[in-house]
């Protein structure tokens, strides 16, 4: 009965992930709409800007709003992955120092699983609107598989594996707090 409760809790975590991913995608779409409104006198195709280039300069081309939104999304995706790796590399030695090498390795396995999960989630979000929706069971199966292996192996502990997996959520929360505190950079 407790395994069913744990599975339900895990499914709720993944539903939260999908909601976060959709919110990030909606944020990228909102940025694209804002950029489109700023360039309302331009057509969606790539056109030269209205500013005349000075002598010896190449005219600037405006990128369509959908391309800039995807560039923003890919930059966000890369930032979250790097931040998750940094969190994992900082937390791993701390866990090793505070507990043991076996616990730290369990954490590291979970953190690596979280990175793989985050990458799969990012790919899934990147495909929204372009392809038919797929089942999300592959992402869920990775975590369940690692947790099953952790329960079967004496060297691994389930709790550090699961907490390591949640490292990507900590990096996501840190990123949201960081971007909400700092004002956005203005384009030059």
Describe it.
The protein is mostly helical and 188 residues long. 72% of the residues lie in helices and 0% in strands. It is built from 6 helices and no strands. Helix 1 (2-38) packs across helix 3 (101-126). Mean pLDDT is 75; it is low at 1-5 and 41-51.
Cα(first) to Cα(last) distance is 59 Å
Helix percentage range:
over 70%
Q: State the major sheet.
A: none
Give the low-confidence spans: 1-5, 41-51
Secondary-structure element series? HHHHHH
In terms of quaternary structure, the protein is single chain
Coarse morphology: flat
Rg of Cα set: 21 Å
Summed over residues and divided by their number, the pLDDT gives a mean of 75
| Tally of contiguous helical segments | 6
Strand tally: 0
Quickly give the structural class.
mainly alpha
Beta content: under 5%
Record keyword descriptors for this entry.
mainly alpha, single chain, disordered N terminus, 6 helices, 188 residues
Fold blueprint:
Layout lengths: L1 H37 L26 H34 L2 H26 L10 H16 L5 H8 L1 H15 L7
Structure in a nutshell:
The protein has helices at residues 2-38, 65-98, 101-126, 137-152, 158-165, 167-181. By secondary structure, it is mostly helical.
């Amino acid at each position: 009965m407790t395994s069913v409760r744990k599975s339900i809790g895990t499914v709720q975590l993944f539903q939260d992930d999908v909601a976060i991913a959709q919110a990030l995608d909606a944020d990228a779409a909102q940025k694209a709409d804002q950029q489109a409104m700023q360039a309302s006198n331009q057509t969606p195709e790539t056109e030269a800007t209205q500013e005349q280039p000075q002598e010896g300069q190449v005219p600037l081309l405006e990128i369509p709003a959908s391309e800039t939104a995807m560039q923003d999304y890919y930059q966000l995706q890369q930032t979250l992955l790097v931040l998750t790796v940094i969190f994992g590399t900082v937390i791993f030695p701390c866990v090793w120092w505070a507990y043991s090498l076996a616990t730290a390795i369990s954490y590291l396995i979970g953190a690596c699983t979280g990175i793989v999960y985050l990458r799969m989630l990012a790919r899934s979000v990147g495909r929204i609107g372009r392809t038919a929706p797929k089942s999300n069971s592959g992402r869920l199966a990775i975590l369940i598989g690692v947790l099953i292996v952790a329960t079967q192996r004496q060297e691994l502990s389930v709790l550090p594996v699961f907490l390591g997996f949640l490292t990507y959520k900590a990096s996501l929360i840190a990123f949201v707090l960081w971007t909400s505190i700092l004002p956005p950079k203005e384009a030059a």
